[in-house]
Model the fold of this input.
Amino acid sequence: MTKPKANIGVVGMAVMGSNLARNLAHHGYVVAIHNRTHAKTEKVLADHGHEGTFIGSESIQDFVNSIDRPRSIILMVKAGASTDATIAELLPHLNEGDIIMDGGNSNFRDTIRREAEISAKGFHFVGTGISGGEYGALTGPAIMPGGTPESYKTLGPMLEAISAHVGDEPCCTWIGPNGAGHFVKMIHNGIEYADMQVIGETFELLRAAGLSVAEAAETFRKWNEGELSSYLIEITAEMLAQADPQTGAPLVDVIKDRAGMKGTGTWTVQTALELGVPVNGIAESVFARALSSHDDLRTAASVLTGPDRVLEVADRESFIEDVRQALWASKVVAYSQGFDEIRTGGEEFGWNISVADAAKIWRDGCIIRAKLLEDIRQEYSADPQLVSLMAAPSIAPKLGEYNAAWRRVVVAAAQAGIAAPVFASSLAYYDMARAPRNNAAVTQGLRDFFGSHTYERIDTPGHYHLEWSGDRSETKISED
Ligand code: NBP
Done:
């Protein structure tokens, strides 16, 4: 009797790949599995083989041969050179029309390059963002596939089946060609950085106002029942309530204050700089992590003087409510910046990304899943060209309502010597964006002064230069 062929294959049996393979098997798919180090494939078969139908192979050739054609093969290996090495190993064994999906956290520019190289050989390459960590991979992540619409016809139903769902709607949709999926995943992670940083700033403010760690945990727990409801607020409450198994002290107090990062936040900011999209909150979050781990700087700066980071709060309950409102406003601004980068990048790279779809598939499964994303989805569905989420009909009035509290919190933090870069930079972004006239005229005047870079006038079109080192006469340099 011939053995059944697999519907799909997964290469990479570390946490993400093994959990994704199990998720596929739980949904009735026959799953071929392979890992460079065969012992990991054997371990998955031994521990989870009973959960569904797996075909484990030691050689890449046997693995490829075990999959039904046209083949769908998911790579879940370390992003970067490992992805290229795995692709190079696979290619000689594939047939025309086969699909390689890269589910790792690859840089979208690598995905653009790989897609061009691989499609030229007659195969499909689908760069796909997957969010939800190892638990999400097993139970239902948010999935952001790029590649061709044709490849989505084959892969899409399987990915949609294993993704998280909101009602009947899968948290998976085709995002756009080549690098679009990894681009959107990158910005998801950038927003995640800002979301986590602003939560950290909130915790520091609550502690400075005299709340114990347990009281702060309880505050986050309560907030999670309202408009701030989100996975990150939920797990903040849980993490803060955790006691250190060794000392019994709050675990958060024994964790070193150094935050690591793997690159997607940095890529979000680098790309935003190239696109000219201000993502202040995300950038501050990346810099905050960098500063936290910059031991030399922190040691050198320890001699600097300033307020002692204690907040004198007259009415604790009203301060906590101020912080809640400031958190909501700062978070919305960070999301607004991230969505602006998606919209602008989508246009720049010719991907025609639906921002509403990105919000739709982030409502569950992923790390930034939040109640707010349903409102965001509705706003971008109503107006796909929405330039700024801040100005959306359901968002702008609330930002106005929360303005006073937001400003009080930023002032209180600055006066007490508590660094709150996302609270403060989000407010500055909000104020700069809404100002009828900002301070850029000074910059442009100076640029013309030292570099003849010209300026535009408010009263007539064209570019002008002033003879700064001569008679101070004005010359029209160009008509537009
Ligand atoms: P890792 O990122 O830790 O990668 C380990 C896997 O890559 C192992 O299967 C390893 O095989 C394989 N690998 C390496 Br390393 N070099 C290889 C090579 N040259 N050829 C073939 N295989 C190679 O695994 P992970 O944490 O499961 O993540 C997988 C992907 O998913 C990554 O791109 C990651 O960024 C992404 N991701 C992770 C998360 C998360 O929460 N962890 C979330 C979303 C996305 P070996 O066993 O032989 O060493």
Summary: The chain has three domains: 8-178, 185-434, 440-478. The mean pLDDT is 97.
